[in-house]
Amino acid sequence: MELPECPVCLQSFDDRDAIPRVLSCGHSVCEACLAELPQRYPNTIRCPACTQLVKYPSQQGPSSLPKNIDLLRISLQHSPSSSSHSHKHNQRSTFNSCNDHSSFWSPEFYDVWKNWILPLDAVLTDDHCLGRFSSSKGRVCFGVNRCVSLAPIVCFSPGDDSKFRFSYVAWVIKCLEGMSEAAREELAWILEASVRQRRVCGVFGLWSEGVEGPLYMVCERQSGNLLDKFGELGNGFVGGNEGGLELDSGGIFYFLMIGRGICEAVLSLHLEGLVAGCLGLSCFSFDELGGICVDLNEVLGMGRRLHAVSGKHEKEAMSKDCLENEIFVSPEVLYELLYMRRSARDSGHLRYPIGYGSDVWSLARVLLWLLIGNVLPRNTLEMNEESDGDSTASYVCCVEKVGSVLEDKLGSEYLSLGKILCKCLDVNPVNRPDVVDVRNCIQDMLVKPQFEFLGNLEVTISKDSTGRCLVLGELSLLPKEWSDEPSEHELREKQIDGHPNFVQDGQDKSDEYSAAGLSGGLTELKDLRSHLDCVSGLAVGGGYLFSSSFDKTVRVWSLQDLSHLHTFRGHENKVMALVYLDEEEPLCISGDSGGGIFIWGIAAPLRQDPLRKWNENKDWRFSGIHSLAVSKNHSIYTGSGDRTIKAWSLKDETLICTMTGHRSVVSTLAVCDEVLYSGSWDGTVRLWSLNDHCPLTVLGEDTLADMRSIMAITVDRHLLVAAHENGCIKVWRNDVFMNSKTLHNGSIFAMSMQGKCLYTGGWDKNVNIQELSGDEFELDVKPYGSIPNSSVVTAILYSQGKLYIGYADKSIKADMINREILSFSLSIIWQHDFLLCSERKVNV
User: Fold this and answer.
1) Which residue, 575, 612, 709, 713, is most buried by CB atoms nearer than 10 A?
2) What positions does the domain RING-type occupy (predicted)?
3) Which of 747, 768, 765, 742 minimizes the C-alpha distance to 165?
4) 249-272 burial code (b ≥16 CB/10 A, e <16)
5) In the prediction, which pLDDT does 376 show?
6) Residue 304: closest CA among 275, 332, 327
């Protein structure tokens, strides 16, 4: 038998450390926890079990509350007498516990990548024509004015007919989520390597030039690379009189200095577990101090060029492309590029392991080009038709030819350099020296024997380690919309109703559905038109959608097919507010600008006349009812233009009390956890106890100078959001101010909240969607996207997985979704707190 326990500390009740005390709502909490619960209002406390505000004797303390004798008797009878209870209090985040709905994105995933996302205005591109394979150029403008290169990483289009617009950050996160797990892991390795290794060109972060655009890796671009500086050096430093530098003119010394820098740059990659897979002169740049860095953007660009050529399975075309663009690829990587997509029957070619030794081959080719230029024949050491199968003999002959050229050009003094470069060209990567060995050889030639005490670079890299090859990795595959053939990741994508599903194995099914929906634009617009004036309110209940309007009517729509069923008539003034009351007899209640309150029955068949109606006291100086709310105690609350809130009895339509305190129109009301929240044009939110209608507190008084009139509020347990006339929202958690953010250009007229998801709409004709996330110490409002519309948004309601939007142009737009089979039928779709819109029928 499980013993009864305190809902706060989760300890079993006893008669010493955890005495159960009964609150007026009927729940029991241990005395020690009651003493530590925060009190926001005098003589009241929020029950931790049901979250209601209940009376609490602040002066006497919890000991004055009655004990729960029954719970205490059960606990003492079944608890071991010898056990000693240690009372430990559990501090839990009420924000997280109350919001168990799905988020737009995984908080853990967002936390991993958020610091790498650059602001939208952080980069200025030199041109709008982005390269197909090579990186594009740009300039970073935040804080510093630095040149950068942009390497496209991925691009997933949300669909041509999708009306939903992602926010900038949401689009970047979507692109990252759409990548394969291997691609994201590879990207993370590159980002971390750029931070830790000074010989790797720094990466500023990830950036997109706009929603629906590709995601780029923004890498610093140095003043010039080796190809720009030495590209015209046809014969290398010591290749001869035509363009080369003679040995006695310092050419060999200059080469050794550059060669050492190149070795250290490649070594930096290997220390991070990365293998370039191909190298060229353009991969190495000079930093501000004259050192040499490896540019990973250029490496990825080379890899994409190789993949494009290898996709055609033409060895000659690939070798020609490598020669023309000075791309040096080791034989084993070249084989892999050509045959990795072939069927199993073509897999009998000679293959060697790909690892750090592969970069040693490419490194040697770069050094040879700098040293002797184009002295070697163009087809030397490149793949030809005879390179299939066992070509070791012919390859050895090519290496011997290279050795003879080096011996002729360098002389006996630098034979060790020639020998180690020839060893680097061995067909078997296991027989090649390490990058450290090449670097040490060059260092020995630079440092005279009398300075040998300086020592060489003491770094060891295991030859058995293969590393992560960038050229053969996911990032070197072309972004899918630029590729002639589907990438390996695309071939693995699952299909949902014919649309790609960019979801990795192990993800939650709700994320799977939302990703498919967000990228597809799969819906048809449903436009509800019957009103003759601006829509002022929306409510859902009893299988119906209710809408009020300035045309003095309340319309009833079927939730099954959204067809118009009935019209409630009787108001003589504009209907300003609308609520649904789910009781034994479900009711629809509406209030108008003349002070009229109408009760409508919704039992079939629907009646033309109201069940009951009455009017509040009219005053020609004010404008009647502006807002409505109902409570479980059968009370109706009206917010009026006379600055008061009135409580009415639903049973006999009598006025229970009038609550005063606001200094202007009470524009919006909400009820939650036995508390009435009222927002006013005076810029404040007031809280009232529903037990005795006494005031509890006032929110927003300290920022009246900065805020305008409150147009709407929404409450979800511990969260309160107020929308203002200037397009700004303010958020409180447990009545403590947490954040303020501008969401719209103009007034926010309508708002709805479901869990962490907040929907807002107003004067700028947009419906914005954002996520409220954080903990007990901070709260962030993260924009997810928006829905542009053709009219001012005047009402928003999210209910039971559906989103309804009312407009000033008399129309209502609604959405429906089958969460199980993704059967989309209307325009605006919300799937597990993810939104999608389609623009197939926009005729508003």
Assistant:
1) 575
2) 6-51
3) 768
4) eebbeebbebbbbbbbbbbbbbbb
5) 60
6) 327
Among all chains, which residue has been given the structure tokens 């669909």? 159
Average pLDDT over residues 723-747: 92
Write the burial class of residue 685 (CB in 10 Å: 0-12 exposed, 13-18 middle, 19+ buried).
buried
CB–CB of 116/109 below 8 Å?
A: no
Of the two residues 818 and 409, the one the predictor is more confident about is 409
Is residue 586 within 8 Å of residue 606, measured between CB atoms? no
How far is residue 428's CA from residue 420's CA, in Å, rounded to a whole number? 15
Q: How many helices (H) and strands (E) does the chain have?
A: 17, 50
Name the amino acid, one letter, at 379.
N
* Residues contacting residue 361 through CB under 8 Å, at least 6 positions apart: 328, 330, 331, 424, 425, 429, 432
Structure tokens that stand for 398 in this block: 């090519």
Q: Which residues contact 445 (CB under 8 A, 6 or more apart)?
A: 256, 414, 416, 417
CA 236 to chain centre: 49
**Residues 6+ positions from 323 with CB-CB distance below 8 Å:** 378, 379, 382
Angle at which helices 415-424 and 392-410 cross, to 10°:
160
Question: Does residue 240 come out as left (phi exceeding 0), alpha (psi in the -120 to 50 range) or beta?
Answer: left
Q: What stretch of H or E contains 647?
A: strand 645-649
Residue 643 has pLDDT above 80, yes or no: yes
803 Cβ neighbours under 8 A, 6+ residues apart: 752, 759, 796, 797, 814, 815, 828, 830, 835
Distance (Å, whole) CA 640 – CA 628 = 9
Give dist(CA 681, CA 639) in Å, integer.
Answer: 11
Cβ-contact 245, 237 below 8 angstroms = yes
Q: Would you kindly state where each structural domain of the chain is located, as residue ranges?
A: 20-91, 107-220, 226-387+436-478
What percentage of the chain exceeds 70 in pLDDT?
A: 73
**Which range has highest mean pLDDT (14-18, 198-202, 387-391)?**
198-202
**What b/e readout covers 400-424, taking b as 16+ CB neighbours within 10 angstroms?**
eebbebbeebbeeebeebbebbbbb
pTM score, whole prediction: 0.72
Other CB atoms closer than 10 Å to residue 85's CB: what's the count?
14
pLDDT digits (tens, 9 = 90+) for 519-528: 333 344 578 8
* Cα–Cα distance, 343 to 334 (Å, whole number): 17
Six token digits for residue 417: 């350099």
Give the whole-angstrom CA distance, residue 278 versus residue 358.
8
**pLDDT (tens digit per residue) in 565-594:** 999 999 999 999 999 998 778 999 999 999
Task: With cut-offs at 50, 70 and 90, classify the pLDDT of residue 706.
Answer: low
Local confidence band at 283 (pLDDT 50, 70, 90 cut-offs):
confident
In this predicted structure, the answer to whether residue 835 has a pLDDT above a threshold of 70 is no
**Three-class HEC string of 526-583:** EEEECCCCCEEEEEEECCEEEEEECCCEEEEEECCCCCEEEEEECCCCCEEEEEEECC
